[in-house]
Design brief:
The protein is of the alpha+beta class. It contains eight helices and 13 strands. The protein is elongated, with a radius of gyration of 35 Å.
Amino acid sequence: MPYVQPGEVRDPIETVAFLRSVLEASSDCIIVLSRDGHPTYVNPLGLRLMEIDDISALHDRSWESLWPAEEAGKVRAALADAVAGRTSRFEAYGPTPRGTPKWWEVVVTPLPGGKGELHRLVAQARDVTDRMMQAQAHAAALREKDLLMQEVHHRVKNSLQLVHSLLTMQARTAASPEAAEQLAESAGRVRTIGAIHDQLCRGAMTLTVAVKDYLSDLAEDIRRSMASTCPERVLTVTADAVTWSAADVSTLGLVMTELVTNALKHGQGEVKVTFTHPPDAQGILVVEDEGRNLPPDFDPRASRGLGMRLVRGLVVERGGSLTVDRDAAMTRFIVTLPLPRESEPA
């Protein structure tokens, strides 16, 4: 088509031919609709995408009737917007007349006439079936993975409960009080690991955990498990709103559980847990109760108790520290935790 100077009148025949060539060159399905939503033209590629051999098959049919009933609302809304002079977009499932499943990304635009009045509507439908099929396959794979992970977590939880029950039974039939106490403590630690595992798996299965909620829920589990032996003790938790990786937060949970359990068994009054994690710094866990401060000669590094050795193994060997606050009038342990690999404000 020759270049037209500004103000020059185009040949109507040339204009129609040019517009037709543009529509036929489009890689999308182009449908020209009347004001009342009936197809009057479909470009050749559009007919192939819709698997229609001849546009005469669309005579006396509205565009809405080509869509499934559940998608009709989207189509009606798009047509109403276009009649009102607004461009509208939607995505919908629309199988071909031959039954081939297809998904479409559609833009409906008003097409004014010579005097600016609405003349036609144009629907540009892009076939996005491949994208939607891939998204559905991905979603199905994720659902299958979640079901598999739930089954794994369930089996791990049952296995830990079984080990806890076996150790408890052995403690009841132990040959000596010392052996019974050690087996009971081992059973308690297995129960602790089970509680930590359960806390990590209760919410959405993600790689990061909200520390504040995690510690609060874990403290409630500890309180319930020791309610028969410490019915009057109060346990409170204050924590910064940060997220840690699941691997790091499980270490934090084990350390807190050991110190809180020790405070409930041997301390007095309220047990307070405080966790702070300033930006770009190590996390600090403080566990204190209202009992007297520990003797001056008490050294966590020299303790032969399995609990203190476990805490030191979890913290010190990874670059943290475990100290006793000698300036406090009460029993107060301060744990400086290794900087987690991935942490951020919640």
